[in-house]
Design a protein that fits this description.
24% of the residues lie in helices and 32% in strands. With 488 residues, the chain is of the alpha+beta class. The strands form four sheets. An eleven-stranded antiparallel sheet has the order 6-5-4-3-2-13-12-11-10-9-8. Strands 18-17-16-19-20 form a five-stranded mixed sheet.
């Protein structure tokens, strides 16, 4: 006869025994395992949905800048391939702002990226488009919910190293067990840094990343992720930028039948459309007809098949094809995945107006000379201080080898021109607001050094005693020789 412990009274002795056995059972469960297998255990049709926030801060001297994004990541298992899985990953970043009647909380995303990837049996995340993590801004593709682990069990204090092509090594350490909600997870510490972080250089920026992952053994992916990424610009001793990312697994539902088929079809179609756009956009005028046909094909697909949570990526792809067909996408920015400004990479070209002469100025016309680009706020108290130094640089160097371009980050054209005259600036004063995104001008002053071949050789934000020697060093390394108007 079964005993109903809920409705029947329990004698005191029996109750004491039950409590004792329950306590022993809990203790046994907590300590019965000292090793864990963290390999991914995902099923076909399983969809992971993560939500959290991303906050970036500029820590440069005299600069106050902070911005927060809402983050949503979806990872759908399309197929199983042995111990690996094919994933469709959608990363959505939306700038966090106040909600009003005319500006809903679910606003246009600041970044929306869709990728097909593979997650192998050791937790290695792979795409054919390079590393997902960038050290100079929010990741447009977030894949930190997976980490490569040994194929055998791991234990507390165990460490291992993950190697990625052309990237610094990643160190991983097991910290132990910790609960997330009601789920027992294995806590991992993940660390990675550029070689210059521990050995600072006056001409090279450095960065350091530290992740904490709470891995749920039943899935082999993170239940929670916390990441801090710090960057230190050249000639600085303290971090000048910090990016904090944190998110939790909200659901891991498994779909089958038509629900899965709809998602798989849309994911594969998005990738096929994106590949077609990537091939056509470098020559939009020649391929205008093909791009229009692609827009029509996307419209036909959207009308024929039901929408899924990935439909927004399809709309984004359509817009890119439409812009290309109407020649609204420049070839150099035609990539679907955004390429960030980076040292050692070509500087984005531009065509802007000189606010005093009204002439058009482009970076292409400056080729053959080292260029110092100065983004500043006209009329500000701080700009008077550093502009004296910048004017000195312009006067010191030979115009055949070096030039300064000043970019006024203001809509008030007259005020910018007047400020340039008042400070007696001899270099061009240009309209700079159109370059805010391409040159990542989130705070002023901002300095970018570009060599005679159009390659970025230095990026700096803020102004302090360390900035003059840093700029001087970067400029000298770009010049064939230090040439001055005085022949020194």
């Amino acid at each position: 006869m079964a005993v109903n412990l809920i409705n029947e009274p329990v004698p005191g002795a029996m109750l004491t025994t039950l409590i004792l056995w329950s306590s022993l059972a809990v203790a046994s469960q907590a300590g019965e395992r000292s090793e864990w297998n963290l390999a991914p255990r995902l099923a076909r049709g399983q969809e992971l949905v993560y939500r959290g926030t991303v906050t970036e801060q500029n820590l440069s001297r005299g600069v106050q800048f902070s911005r927060t994004y809402r983050l949503e990541v979806r990872g759908l298992v399309l197929e199983l391939k042995g111990d690996a899985v094919d994933l469709a990953v959608l990363t959505r970043l939306t700038q966090q702002q106040a909600t009003t009647a005319d500006r809903p909380n679910d606003s246009e995303p600041a970044s929306l990226r869709f990728e097909l990837a593979e997650l192998d049996g050791a937790g290695r995340f792979m795409t054919n488009r390079g590393p997902w993590l960038v050290p100079d801004g929010p990741a447009t593709l977030e894949a930190g919910f997976a980490i490569e682990v040994p194929r055998t069990s791991v234990r507390v204090n165990q460490t291992w190293t993950v190697q990625e092509a052309n990237q610094p090594p990643i160190g991983v350490k097991v910290l132990g067990l910790e609960s997330v909600g009601n789920l027992s997870c294995v806590k991992l510490l993940v660390e990675q840094e550029s070689p210059e972080w521990s050995n600072p250089r006056a001409d090279v920026a450095a960065w350091r990343r530290q992740d904490t992952l709470w891995i749920a053994p039943r899935l082999g992916v993170a239940q929670r992720v916390h990441r801090t990424l710090e960057r230190r610009e050249a000639a600085h001793r303290e971090p000048t930028y910090r990016l904090t990312t944190q998110y939790d697994l909200e659901s891991s539902l498994r779909y089958d039948g038509l629900f899965l088929e709809d998602r798989r079809r849309e994911a594969q179609a998005i990738r096929q459309f994106e590949d077609s756009i990537r091939a056509l956009l470098p020559k939009p005028q020649q391929n205008a007809g093909a791009l229009k046909q692609l827009v029509a094909r996307i419209d036909q697909f959207a009308e024929k098949y039901p929408a899924t949570p990935y439909r927004e990526a399809l709309h984004r792809t359509r817009k890119l094809a439409l812009d290309g067909s109407e020649n609204r996408v420049a070839p150099q920015v035609a990539e679907v995945a955004t390429q960030r400004l980076a040292v050692g990479k070509p500087a984005p070209d531009f065509l802007v107006q000189d606010l005093r002469t009204k002439e058009a100025v482009s970076l292409r016309k400056c080729k053959g000379r080292t260029v110092l680009m100065v983004f500043y706020l006209p009329g500000s108290e701080s700009s008077r201080l550093f502009m004296r130094y910048i004017q000195g640089l312009a006067e010191e160097h030979n115009e055949k080898d070096f030039m300064v371009l000043g970019f006024a980050m203001s809509d008030d054209v007259e005020k910018a021109a007047e400020a340039a005259e008042r400070m007696r600036l001899t270099f061009p004063t240009l309209a700079g607001k159109s370059l805010k995104v391409s040159y990542e001008v989130e705070a002023t002053p901002r300095f970018v050094v570009v060599d005679s071949q159009g390659i970025v050789r230095g990026m700096y934000t803020g102004w302090g005693p360390e900035m003059p020697p840093a700029l001087t060093s970067a400029i000298r390394q770009c010049l064939p020789a230090v040439t001055t108007t005085g022949g020194q």
